[in-house]
Write a structure and sequence with these properties.
Blueprint lengths: L31 E5 L4 H4 L2 H11 L3 E8 L22 H11 L3 E7 L2 E3 H6 L21 E3 L5 H17 L4 E4 L12 H11 L12 H28 L4 E4 L11 H4 L6 E3 L12 H12 L5 E6 L3 E2 L2 E2 L7 H13 L2 E8 L9 H18 L3 E2 L3 E5 L17 H12 L4 E5 L5 H4 L4 E4 L7 H12 L3 E5 L4 E4 L2 E4 L2 H4 L1 E8 L6 E4 L14 E3 L4 E6 L13 E8 L20 E7 L5 E5 L3 H8 L2 H15 L5 E5 L3 E7 L3 E8 L19 E6 L4 E8 L4 E3 L1 E4 L2 E6 L5 E10 L8
Parallel strand pairs: 1-2, 1-12, 2-3, 3-6, 6-7, 8-9, 9-12, 14-15, 14-16, 16-17, 17-26
Antiparallel strand pairs: 4-5, 10-11, 13-28, 18-19, 20-23, 21-22, 21-24, 24-25, 25-26, 27-30, 28-29, 29-35, 30-34, 31-32, 31-35, 33-34
C-alpha cells in the first residue's frame, strides 16, 4: 500500500489559524510531526518543504526544537546559546507560523541536559559534578558539560527559557527532553546542601545499596523532579493559560515521580520508543499503547517513531528505516491507542524515502480516526502489569516487559485474542469489572492488597490464569503462593532451575490438551515450582461447585547426558498445570513453570498452544469476538453503544519477530465472528480502509463478516440492527 505520490488525495486541510486555544487542546493533537534542528540547519532550512510534508501527511500537531542546549530563535536570555548560524533568521518562528496556518497545534522542544563552555565558565553552579567535585563532561561531544537538575539552571534558567518561548510564540506546550539529569548522582554543592537539609543525610558515596542514604536519595530525587514538573508547568500557564509544560515521560515512567504532585500535570504522554531493535516483535508498538492505557485509560499517548533505523546503541539519524516497517509499526501502535508521531533529526534531508510511508501511515490513521472517535478499546482478557521498583536505585524506573510477559503476549497475538494491560497501581474491582480473565505471566511483586482484590474478583466470577512464581512470597514463616487458596494449590517445593530436560505428561481428555493429538508428553519448563492441588471447602451460597483437576504433570527428572541415560525412570511427578472451577462461577489455571519465558526463548508452538488453551478454558465459553484465518494478525476491538470496530493489523511477515520489514505481504482473508449484544438481531458491516460494505450474516446469536486479504490494516465497523425501533434499542 506504500505510495509514491506524496499527495494522498484527501480533502484539503482548513487553512488559517483557527485552532482553538483551549485547555483540552491535546485531545485533538493526534498526528505529530517532530523536527529536531541541528546547528547548521539555519543555513539551508526550507520551511516550505516541511509545511508541504505536514500538509500531505495530515499532521495536526508539531513538536519543534526551540532552545535549552541550543536556541533556534532569537533568544534574549544571557548564556542561552544560539546556533552560530542563526544570524537574523528565526527557523523556529517560521515553522511555528507555518504550522498555525495549517491549523496545527505546536509544542516547543527544549533540552536542558548540557551547556556550552561559556555558560559553564560563567555559572559553575549549573554543572553536574562527580564524587570528587569535578564537572562532568558530555559523554559524546567535547567541550560541553552536563547540567545538575537540582541547580538554578533547571529551576531558573530553563524556566525563563520556557516563559520566553510561550510569551513570544503561539505555542500550546513546551516539551523537555533529557531533563532528569545524568544517570549518576550529581555531587554539586547545591545538591549536597539541599539533600542534607531535607533528609539530614549526606549524598551516598558508596555502592552499598544497604546504606540508608540510597533509599533516602531515591525518594528525594523523585520529589525534586516532581516539584520541577510543577514549577515549569505553572510558569508557562501564567504566561499563556491554556499552555502546558510536559517533560518527556511515558505513563509507566511516572511511577518514579510523586504521583500526588504530577498526576494532573501530564494531560498526555509521549513514549520515546523510536522503532524496533534487535529481537523485538512487530507488536511492540501496540503493547506500548496498551501499557499506557493500563495506567491512564483516558489520557492520550503518542508513540515517538524515528524515520531512521534503530539498533540498540547505534543511531543512524540521517538514514531511513524501511518504509514497510514504518507503516506497520505505526499502524499497530495506533489501533491500540498509541497515536502516531514521527521524528526527523536534521532539517537537511539527505534521503526523502521516509516521506511516503509517513503520508501513508498518517493517512491510515486519519481514515480510521473518525470511526474510532468516541469508541472505547475493549476486551475480555487483561494482563496484569506488575513491577517492583527498587527503592535504592533512583534510575531503575520502569523497564517495559519481561521475557515471561513477552511469551504470553506472543501467544495471545498468535491466538487472535484481543487483550488489554492493567497496571498493578490501578488494580481495583472497578477496573477489573470489564474483564473475564486476568493473566499473571510471572507476577512476583504482588502485595497483600493486590491479592485481596484478585481474591474478591475471582469470588465474584472472574477467572485467573497464573504462571510460575506469580504471588510467591517469602517471609519469616517460609515461602508460599499467596494466591494458592484461589488457584487451589499448595507449595511443596521452592522454585528450582534451570532444569535442562523437563517434560510434562498430558491428560488427553482435558480441554487444555486440545490440539496435542498424538503426543503423550511435551516440553515443559526450565524453571519449576513444586505444587499439589488442595481441597477447599465450598462456602454456603456460592454459585457453583469447586472442582480441581491436574491435566498436566511433570515427568520426574532424568539426565540429558550421556545419551544412553536419557530416558524416564517412571513414577508420577508433581503438578505442572492445575485447573480449578471456582465456586463463584469463574475458573483458574495455574502453570507451575516458566511457560512464558520458555516460549519466548525457544518458540515451541506447544507452549503457545498451552497458553491459548488455558485462556480459552478460563473464559468458560465463547469469546465475544473470534477471528479465524491464516497468518499472523494483531486484533484490537473498540465499542460504543451502537457499534463495534474490529481492527486487523497485518503482521504476516518473515521479519515480524525481528526488524525490519522489507515488504508488505497481504494477510489472507479472515472471518470475524461477534456475539450480538442484547436486543440486537443483526449488524451491518463496513470495511473502512477498503471503503466498501461487507456481507454480514447471523447464525446462533453471532454475526459473521468476511474480510478479504488485508494489506497493512483493515477495520470492520459493525453497526447493530434491531427487529424494530423501541426501548430496547440503544
Amino acid at each position: 500500500m506504500l505510495t509514491t505520490d506524496h499527495e494522498p488525495g484527501l480533502d484539503p486541510i482548513p487553512q488559517g489559524p483557527t485552532t482553538a486555544r483551549s485547555l483540552d487542546w491535546f485531545r485533538t493533537a493526534t498526528r505529530w510531526t517532530q523536527l529536531t534542528f541541528v546547528e547548521d540547519d539555519p543555513l539551508h532550512f526550507d520551511p516550505e518543504f516541511w509545511i508541504s510534508v505536514m500538509r500531505q501527511s495530515r499532521s495536526n500537531a508539531l513538536c519543534l526544537s526551540a532552545g535549552g542546549y541550543m536556541a533556534f530563535y532569537p533568544t534574549r536570555i544571557p548564556f542561552h546559546y544560539r546556533s552560530r548560524h542563526l544570524g537574523n533568521t528565526d527557523p523556529f518562528g517560521d515553522l511555528v507560523a507555518g504550522a498555525r496556518e495549517l491549523d496545527m497545534h505546536v509544542m516547543a522542544r527544549v533540552d536542558p541536559h548540557a551547556i556550552h563552555a561559556d555558560a559553564a565558565q560563567a555559572h559553575p553552579e549549573w554543572l553536574a559534578r562527580d564524587a570528587d567535585g569535578n564537572p562532568i563532561p558530555h559523554w559524546a561531544f567535547p567541550d560541553i558539560w552536563l547540567t545538575d537538575p537540582f541547580s538554578t539552571y533547571h529551576r531558573e534558567f530553563i524556566t525563563d527559557v520556557a516563559r520566553e518561548i510561550v510569551r513570544d510564540y503561539d505555542v500550546d506546550a513546551v516539551f523537555a527532553n533529557r531533563w532528569e539529569g545524568p544517570s549518576a548522582i550529581s555531587y554539586s554543592e547545591a545538591a549536597e546542601r539541599r539533600f542534607f537539609d531535607d533528609t539530614g543525610l549526606h549524598l551516598p558515596r558508596t555502592q552499598d545499596r544497604t546504606d540508608p542514604a540510597w533509599r533516602a536519595y531515591t525518594a528525594w530525587r523523585s520529589r525534586q523532579l516532581s516539584e520541577l514538573v510543577v514549577l515549569w508547568d505553572d510558569a508557562v500557564r501564567e504566561v499563556r493559560p491554556h499552555a502546558r509544560f510536559i517533560p518527556n515521560r511515558g505513563a509507566m515512567l511516572t511511577r518514579d515521580l510523586v504521583r500526588d504532585l504530577v498526576d494532573d500535570r501530564y494531560p498526555m504522554f509521549f513514549i520515546d520508543k523510536q522503532g524496533r531493535s534487535e529481537n523485538e516483535a512487530l507488536w511492540w508498538s501496540g503493547r506500548i499503547g496498551k501499557r499506557s492505557r493500563g495506567m491512564f485509560p483516558d489520557r492520550p499517548v503518542a508513540l515517538i517513531t524515528s524515520v531512521g533505523p534503530e539498533h540498540g546503541e547505534y543511531r543512524w539519524k540521517d538514514s531511513v528505516a524501511d518504509p514497510h516497517e514504518i507503516v506497520t509499526w505505526m499502524a499497530d501502535g495506533f489501533v491500540h491507542g498509541a497515536l502516531p508521531w514521527y521524528t526527523k533529526f536534521n532539517a537537511n534531508v539527505f534521503d526523502t524515502r521516509w516521506v511516503a510511508p509517513i503520508v501513508d501511515a498518517f493517512g491510515l490513521h486519519e481514515r480510521v480516526a473518525g470511526v474510532f472517535e468516541g469508541m472505547a478499546i475493549t476486551s475480555e482478557v487483561a494482563i496484569l502489569d506488575n513491577v517492583r521498583l527498587d527503592p535504592t536505585n533512583p534510575w531503575a524506573g520502569y523497564t517495559a516487559g519481561s521475557v515471561d510477559e513477552d511469551g504470553f503476549y506472543q501467544a495471545l497475538v498468535e491466538a487472535r485474542v484481543p487483550f488489554d494491560y492493567l497496571a498493578d497501581t490501578e488494580l481495583t474491582l472497578e477496573r477489573l469489572a470489564p474483564y473475564r480473565v486476568l493473566i499473571l505471566p510471572n507476577c512476583r511483586a504482588l502485595s497483600d492488597a493486590h491479592c485481596a482484590v484478585i481474591r474478591e474478583w475471582v469470588a465474584g466470577g472472574g477467572s485467573l490464569v497464573a504462571a510460575h512464581e506469580s504471588s510467591l512470597v517469602t517471609d519469616g514463616d517460609g515461602t508460599e503462593l499467596a494466591l494458592g487458596d484461589v488457584l487451589g494449590v499448595r507449595l511443596t517445593q521452592a522454585p528450582r532451575g534451570p532444569v535442562k530436560n523437563n517434560y510434562i505428561a498430558l491428560d488427553p481428555q482435558h480441554p487444555l490438551a486440545a490440539g496435542f493429538d498424538g503426543a503423550t508428553r511435551v516440553v515443559g519448563g526450565t524453571r519449576l515450582v513444586g505444587v499439589e492441588p488442595i481441597e477447599i471447602p465450598t462456602a454456603a451460597g456460592t454459585a457453583g461447585a469447586d472442582v480441581t483437576t491436574v491435566p498436566f504433570r511433570f515427568v520426574p527428572d532424568y539426565p540429558d547426558l550421556p545419551m544412553e541415560e536419557v530416558y524416564p525412570r517412571g513414577g508420577e511427578g508433581s503438578a505442572a498445570v492445575v485447573c480449578r472451577e471456582q465456586p463463584g462461577g469463574g475458573r483458574s489455571v495455574y502453570l507451575a513453570f516458566n511457560v512464558g519465558e520458555i516460549l519466548w526463548a525457544a518458540m515451541q508452538h506447544d507452549h503457545a498452544r498451552l497458553i491459548r488453551n488455558a485462556v480459552a478454558w478460563a473464559l468458560g465459553g465463547e469469546p465475544r469476538v473470534r477471528i479465524e484465518g491464516q497468518g499472523f494478525v494483531d486484533v484490537a476491538v473498540r465499542t460504543d453503544a451502537t457499534s463495534m470496530a474490529v481492527a486487523l493489523v497485518n503482521l504476516n511477515n518473515p521479519m515480524a519477530m525481528r526488524g525490519q520489514n522489507r515488504e508488505t505481504i497481504p494477510l489472507p482473508p479472515q472471518e470475524i465472528s461477534v456475539a450480538l449484544p442484547d436486543g440486537a438481531t443483526g449488524a451491518t458491516a463496513r470495511l473502512v480502509l477498503a471503503d466498501t460494505w461487507a456481507p454480514a450474516h447471523v447464525a446462533d446469536g453471532r454475526v459473521h463478516v468476511s474480510v478479504p486479504a488485508v494489506d497493512v490494516l483493515e477495520v470492520a465497523h459493525l453497526t447493530w440492527t434491531y427487529a424494530r425501533p423501541g426501548p430496547q434499542q440503544p
